C-alpha cells in the first residue's frame, strides 16, 4: 500500500533531495558537475514533451525551436535590459509560453501527421531566422554570460562541503538542479489536478471528453502553452550553461533528441524523464570513449552518439511502444 | 530589355524556371511521402535519410561505373530496396504491436524519426560529415541565349525531365496496371482488399519501395547542383512535406502540383526577399493551407484528423 | 468429414466474449443461414472464419484442413470468400476496378474473364455502370458488386454477412434469389448470416439461431419457419 503523500510534503522531500544533490557537487570533478547541469536542463526539456505528448497525446517535433525562442528571448532580455539572470530565465519561459499559445491554436486543429509535420517545419524554420535578423547575431549567435559566481553562494556553508573551487560550472549546476526539481514538482501538481485530468480524458477519448464538457481545443492550447513555457525555460537554461544562443545549438537534432529522451523515459512517466535525461547526456560520453577505444577517427566520434541514440529510440519503440511505464499501485 | 511595372521580365522568367526545377525535386519528395502515407498511413520522416543513403550509394557506384546515369539507376534500386526493408523489418512489426493501443498514432512517427537519425549517423560513420561532390556530366552553367545567360542549367533541365518521367511512370503504374489497382485498393480499404485476395502486406512493401525509389531520384538528381553530406537533404524533407500537404497528402497529382507551386513560391521569395526567410515562409504556407484549405488543393473537404 | 466443421469456437474482444463455444457444420453444396439479433455474434463468427480476427479457442475445418492461423487473403485464395457486412466495396474505385480486384492475383488461364461475364449477366445493372465510381451506386447495386467481386475470387465456401442490410424489400428479394441461383449453378457452399430471418430461411436448407454468442436452436429451414415458439422468440414475426 502506498500512502498518499501530500504535495507540500513532496515539496519538502524534493527540497531535501535538492540539497543533497547540491552538496554532492563538492565531491565530483568539474566535468561531472557540468554534465549534472546538462541533465537538469534535459529534465526540464523532457518534462515539456512529457506534459504534451504523454498526457495530452499531441506530438511536437518542434520543441527545439521553442527552446530556441526561450533562449534568444532570455539572452536578449539579459543583455539588453541588464536584468538578473533569474528574471532572464523567466523571460525565456514566458516567451516559450507565448509561442506555445500561438502554436497551440494551429495545433488544436491538427492531429497526427499534420501536427508532427508542422512542428517539424517549425524546428527547421525558427533557427534559420537567426541568420536573417542582425539583432539575433547570425551564425555566431549571442553570448549569454551571467558573470562571476556571487559571493553569497561561493561563501555559503553549502559551498564548504567537499572540496574543489567554486567554478562557474558548479554555479550552473546549483542553478539548474533546483529548477529541474521545481519543474517536476509543478508539473506533477498540474497533472494530478483538474487540468491533468482534462488532458488525460482528451488523450484517451476526445469525443467523450467533449461530451462531458471539456473544451478540447482550449485544452489543447493550454497543453501547448504549459509545455512550451517549460521548453522556453529549458532553452534559456541551455543558453546559460553554454554561454550563448546560436542557431547551431537548436538544430533539428535537438528536437529529435528531446523526443528520444521522452520515449526512453516512457512518454508519460514524469520521473522517468530524469533517467531519459541522464541517458541523453551519458550516450555521447560513453560512445566517445568506445570510439577512442576503437582507435576511432573523427567520423566515429562524431556519429556514434547519433547512431546509438537512434538505435535506442527504435528499439524502445519496437519493444515498449506504449512506454516503459511503471504501474502505480492504487 | 522588357520591363513590366519596373520588374525585369528576364528575372521573372528565370525565377520561374528555377522554381520549377527545385519544385520538381519537392514534387518527387512529396510523391515519396504520399506513396508511403497512402500505403500505411504513416508520414515517413525517414524519407530524407533513405534518399541520402541511396544517393551515397549512387555516388559510390559512380566510382566504378564511371557513368552518372547508370549510378542514378543504382541509386534508384538501392532506394527501393531500402524502402522495402524499412517497411518489412521495422514498420510492419511495429504496426502489429501497437494496433489499437494509445501509441498507435505516435509510435510509427517516432520510429521513422529514429530511422532518420540512424541513417544519418550511419552515413556519417561511412562517408564522414564532410561535403562530397557527386557530379553529373551535364553542365551546371546556365543556358545562354544570345548575349544573356540565365541561371537555368542543363542539370536543372534534367531534374525537371527526370521528375516528369517518374511522375508519368507512377501515373501509368497506378492507373493502368494490376499492381496499381492493388496499390490503390490496399491504400483505400485494406480489409476489403484482403477479402478480395490481395496480399496487402506485400503491396505495402511495394508502396514503400516505390517511395524509396522516388526519393532516390530526387536525391541523385538534385545533388549535382549542390553537395552531398549526411544531412544535405533534411530541408528537402520539410519542403516535401509542405508540398505533400499542399497537394492533400493523399493525392499523387496533388504532390506533383504542390511541389511545383512551392518551388516557384520559394524561388520568388529567394529572389525578392532573401534566403533565410524561405523556411519561415514554408511554415506560414503550411499553417495557411492546413487552416484554410485543410484537405489540400486536390483533396475533398473534411477535417484533418487522421 | 468434408465441408465446414466448426467445433466449440470462441471469440473474445478483450475480456468480453462475443462467441461462447459454438459448434455446427455445413456440408458441401449446402446453404445454411445463421439467424440472430444485433450483437448475437454472427458477424464475429464470419470474421473469425475468414481470418480477420483471432479466435480464443475451438477449431474450424474446411474440407478436413484447419483454417485458423491463415491471413484472410490466403483463405480467399483457398476458396473461402467473405463478403463483409455493409456493402463491402471500395468507394474510391470504379465498378469495374472493384470487380477486377478479385481477379488480379489469378492466372489469366484461370478464366477470370468468363466469370466476370457471368457476373455481369447475373447483375446486368453492374454492366451498365462499369466506369462509374462505386460510391455512386445504390445500396442494392453495391451489394451486388460486393457479391460479384466475391464470385470472381472463385469461392468454394461463400460467407455472406447480412446482404439485406438497409435494402428495400424488392431489392432484398432480387439479391436473395440471385444467391439461391448462384449456389445451385456454381455448386457453392454458402454460410449466410442474417437478421432478416424470413428471407434467409426461404432460400436456406438449414438454419441456426444465435443468441448472445451461443447456438439456441438449429434445424431444417422449413421446420424452423414452422416452429411457433421460435417464431415468437427469435424470428420476430
Summarize the structure.
With 330 residues, chain A is mainly α.
Strand content of chain A: under 5%
Q: How many helices of chain B in DSSP terms?
A: 11
Let me know the number of strands of chain A.
2
What percent of residues of chain B adopt helix (DSSP H or I)?
Answer: over 70%
**Strand line-up in the sheet with most strands of chain A:** 1-2
Helix proportion of chain A: over 70%
Q: What's the number of domains of chain B?
A: 1
Compute the separation of the termini of chain A in Å. Answer: 8 Å
Q: Which series of helices and strands of chain A comes N to C?
A: HHHHHEHHHHHEHHH
Largest sheet of chain B: 2 strands, antiparallel
Class from secondary-structure proportions of chain B: mainly alpha
Gyration radius of chain A, rounded: 20 Å
Strand line-up in the sheet with most strands of chain B: 1-2
Low-confidence stretches of chain A: 324-330
Structure in words:
- Chain A is built from 13 helices and two strands, in the order αααααβαααααβααα.
- Chain A is an all-alpha fold and 330 residues long.
- Chain A has one domain.
- In chain A, helix 2 packs across helix 11.
- Mean pLDDT of chain A is 79; it is low at 324-330.
- With 306 residues, chain B is mostly helical.
- In chain B, helix 1 packs antiparallel against helix 8 (200-222).
- The longest helix of chain B has 32 residues, at 9-40.
- In chain C, helix 3 packs parallel to helix 6 (139-152).
- Chain C contains ten helices and ten strands.
- In chain C, the strands form two sheets. Chain C has a six-stranded mixed sheet with strand order 6-7-8-3-9-10, sandwiched between helices. A four-stranded antiparallel sheet of chain C has the order 2-1-4-5, with helices on one face.
- In chain C, 38% of the residues lie in helices and 26% in strands.
- With 237 residues, chain C is of the alpha/beta class.
- The interface between A and B is large, with 52 and 58 residues.
